[in-house]
Amino acid sequence: HDVPLQETFDATIAAEQRIEPRDWMPDGYRKTLIRQIAQHAHSEIIGMQPEGNWLTRAPSLRRKAILTAKVQDEAGHGMYLYSAAETLGVDREDLTTKLIEGRQKYSSIFNYPTLTYADVGTIGWLVDGAAICNQVPLCRSSFGPYARAMIRVCKEESFHQRQGYELLTTMMRGTDEQRAMVQESVNRWWWPALMMFGPPDDQSPNTAQSMAWGVKRHTNDELRQRFVDMSIPQAQALGVTFPDPDLAWNAERGSYDFGEPDWSEFMAIVKGNGPTNLARIARRRAAHEDGAWVREAATAFAAKQAGQTRS
Ligand code: ACO
Q1: Disulfide: which of 13, 60, 118, 253 matches 185 by Cβ 3.0-4.6 Å?
Q2: CA 242, CA 186: separation in Å to the nearest integer?
Q3: Residue 8 C-alpha from the chain's centroid
Q4: What is the DSSP letter of 4?
């Protein structure tokens, strides 16, 4: 007789195999994946803005070319992730509408302004570094299209992280003023980078179920700790410090102790009240509306091509 669908799903998860779009899946599994993948895609797209801010003011042709390539990569990641979400039966147009109406979230990190050019380096190093730390385990996520998308995304994020670090090492070899600019930038981005991993485990409503389903592979706090541990030697090599008096090696745990991020700031940002939330969404909405003619032309062209093939 037929094995019940739920049993087949559970057995696939238990055997660490992949769930594919045509497989039966519980509604909750589908919903949580749409939520996470859409939020992830929106983050990539909104994430183009803070760095895009420096494209016209990059200090050399080489830096401008690198930054342009990087921002284009983020657009590619967003498109790739919207495609992964579409395999779950949602429509990209609908997801974009939800984003610009504030009904779906995107990462808190992209609601801070990029005040100096050093921020381009710091975002590459710390923000993309945190993204890699969070996303490498997602290459083993139980949903096939998401896991496969993460492989390519992580490769490109590694390039982004290195370009950021290299930019900062160049500035650190420069003048006192440049070194101060790097330190000031790191001071502003450190705590927001730690918040990227989400709320503490005891305040994370989704983690337990997402881990049981193999959607997430580690808790928010586990990944935050991993990020702190990997970042400290990098900061030492660079010659900067993190703005946390509680940072200290804990020999017993074999990890660094660190202070508590300001979770009230995090909550305010997630609710849409961060320093740049309104501007980010307004910009996205304007780009979407200004691009309507491109979508219309592409749709008309595709219809014409399809007509020609038929005749
Ligand atoms: N920014 C904004 N919202 C957040 C953040 C954050 N940094 N962290 C958590 N949240 C939201 C969650 O989306 C959730 O809200 P929802 O239930 O309305 O969707 C709520 O806060 C509670 O959090 P959790 O229960 O911990 O949510 P979840 O299990 O989804 O974990 C996490 C959050 C770790 C961000 C997870 O979704 C994830 O790994 N996503 C994939 C990576 C990603 O989206 N990265 C984007 C930034 S990196 C980049 O694009 C360069």
Answers
A1: 118
A2: 7
A3: 32
A4: P
Whole-model pTM over 0.90: yes
pLDDT digits (tens, 9 = 90+) for 106-129: 999 999 999 999 999 999 999 999
Give the whole-angstrom CA distance, residue 200 versus residue 214: 19
Positive or negative CA dihedral for 92, 94, 97, 102?
Answer: negative
Compute, in angstroms, the gap from residue 212 CA to the centroid of ligand 1. 17
Q: Looking at the predicted complex, does its ipTM rise above 0.90?
A: yes
Nearest to 54 by CA among 115, 129, 125: 115
- DSSP single-letter state for residue 249: E
CA distances from 246 to 16, 89, 131, 242 (A): 39, 46, 24, 10
Q: Residue 21 carries which DSSP code?
A: T
Element (H, E) at 255: strand 255-257
Cα 11 to Cα 1, 2, 3, 145: the distances in Å are 17, 14, 11, 19
Separation CA 240–CA 234 (nearest Å): 9
Rounded CA separation 255/277 (Å): 34
pLDDT at 169 over 70: yes
What stretch of H or E contains 14? helix 5-14
- In the block, residue with structure tokens 């993460």: 150
Q: Is the CB of 196 under 6 A from ligand 1?
A: yes
Encode burial over 193-226: b for 16+ CB neighbours within 10 A, e otherwise. bbbbbbbeeeebeebeebeebbbbbbbbbebbbb
The residue whose CA is least distant from atom 21 of ligand 1 is: 198
């219809």: which residue's tokens? Answer: 303
3-state SS, residue 16 = coil
Tokens of 144: 């096939």
Q: Give the residue, by CA position, lying nearest to ligand 1 atom 47.
A: 107
